[in-house]
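retry 2 of 3: previous attempt timed out while embedding flavin-adenine dinucleotide. Reduced batch size to 1 and resubmitted. Inputs unchanged:
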Amino acid sequence: HVKHSIAGPRSIISGTILFSPMNYSEEFDVLVIGGGHAGAEAALAAARMGVSTLLLTHNMDTLGQMSCNPSIGGIGKGHLVKEVDALGGAMAWATDQAGIQFRILNRSKGPAVRATRAQADRSLYRRAIRMILQGQKNLMIFQQAVDDLILEGDRVVGARTQIGLVFRARAVVLTAGTFLNGLMHVGLSHYAAGRAGDPPATSLGERLKELKLPQGRLKTGTPPRIDAKTIDFSKTEIQPGDTDPVPVFSFLGRADMHPEQVPCWITHTNERSHEIVRSGLDRSPMYSEQGTIEGIGPRYCPSIEDKIHRFADKASHQVFLEPEGASSCEIYPNGISTSLPFDIQFALVRSLPGLENARIMRPGYAIEYDYFDPRHLHAWLETRAIRGLFFAGQVNGTTGYEEAAAQGLLAGANAALQALGREPWTLDRSQAYLGVLADDLVTKGVTEPYRMFTSRAEYRLSLREDNADLRLTEMGRTLGLVDDARWDAFCRKRDAVEAEIQRLRETRVNPAVLDAHVRERMALQRLDRHPSLLDLLRRPDVEYDALMALRDAQGAPLAGPGLADPAQAEQVGIQAKYAGYVDRQRDEIERQKAQADQAVPQDFDYAGVAGLSTEVRQRLEASRPATIGQAARISGVTPAAVSLLLVHLKRHA
Ligand code: FAD
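retry 2 succeeded.
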């Protein structure tokens, strides 16, 4: 699909300088701007779907760069990573190659809120992402800053780089992260940057302002990095990763892919630390009168100055000391993100137990950047105003690598579908956290950097990490996102789980053949009832392994040997135990869907609906929901207003 054209040379007189530019232009199906987490997944998704794709980024050495904490996953975020993986994405696979500590959070709670988290080796992660990108068929990578978008009418047709190269495309995915008009703050000093060590995207930021897409400013921050050699870890608490079993992220991952595993450590702030922070507030870009930060920061990832301000009665906060990787002596002190002046950062760090002699290797800072109001996007992340232009990642007002990656995959796949002339692909809230994320963004917008939580999903019992593949891989295969190796592994797992559940359903146990103490343990005192193995597994206190170990009084196995693969066995256990709840949830989803799926025309005349308040009408006009379900989720749109809409639609059908 790739077309090259080199016309020229042509001379232009500009002032006193004589240019002889090569009028170089190239054409692709999909152009992705930015090689962060959204950009990498967008480019990979488009290329996997078979369209010619170009990834244009500032610097090829920062592909997959983690701007802040080198960790992937956590509650809600881990769910997104597994979904991206189930759809063929790179994040989980790269984490399995780069993770230096893996943990399952909420292990003792129900499977819906269990989540995988990994500490990554920053440079191994970059390397893994780069290898995946380089190895992807149909994908080209080019290092250049994009300064301009090329439009024809209301459609984007390409982009122009800093040195004037033109790349034309049928669809463009913009994933510029924190770089658009990025402004870094340390104390009262500030300067333009995309993040520490990287230039901002100022020309592109200005061009997007000209296009009058609704936008605002947000901010985020990062802590100073500490030299591990200067920390006395004996004064801190060690926090090892999980060992039995060692978790993996990707459905194709294996623990033997992980590099050497290391522990993290925990220390705490104290009254003196808090006093130091308070003493610097008069030079804080956030809190002092001379401070210039306008953007709103992430409520769930607050800076240490925010924490001390908001939770003034708390005498101490936890600080996790997280290694950045085997080839780095830097420690990421998770919990003290700050934009206070450097002298305050230095004193704060030295007030922490174990860090009395610590040396800072990089200062902490905050960054402000432009984002675009995501209510002006379709659910497939294409802008409503400019056809063919998709936005994904931090530019949509989210925060986090995982949120960015998930949007990147959705936008990249849809850009490819558009290039192929196919219908857009969307996910709804009952199918995936990715559906919840996209729906929250396009219907509610953001007032602060948005991050994912399990509490955002109303159907979280069905949207578990463990079944992300069962929910999504088939869909990914139909779209062309899932390759043969993943598909084969998925089919093997799906079929083995189904066959095993069938076997358990059909195999009945005669309690009379069991020893009396086993009968009692299994609550099988009634000898006239012969429950199936599935009935037994449904009991909260019976685990799959214990069931497979059941023997009759002579020692012969009754149920085993069962499935050897732990992931398959876990899936059988979860499906058996939660079937009742999940079935009830499915019925409720069906009921609500019937109403929520009702389409609302894009040119719907809200002024014609009698009884709608002006405020509700304006909110609906601003968001232009595609369905009744989307309308109902817009904040301020009451159930009564939804009923009025439904009546109006029915009357005018
Ligand atoms: P990015 O990872 O920012 O990638 C953007 C990419 O686009 C870069 O490769 C850049 O070079 C490229 N690019 C930009 N403009 C152009 C252009 N004009 N031409 C070519 N290439 C371009 N997340 C959290 O979850 N918690 C936190 O506490 C947190 N703190 C953060 C602190 C800081 C200081 C920063 C910078 C980020 C922080 N993040 C945090 C956010 C996290 O880094 C982002 O959410 C994530 O990286 C977003 O991914 P992205 O792909 O959207 O953008």
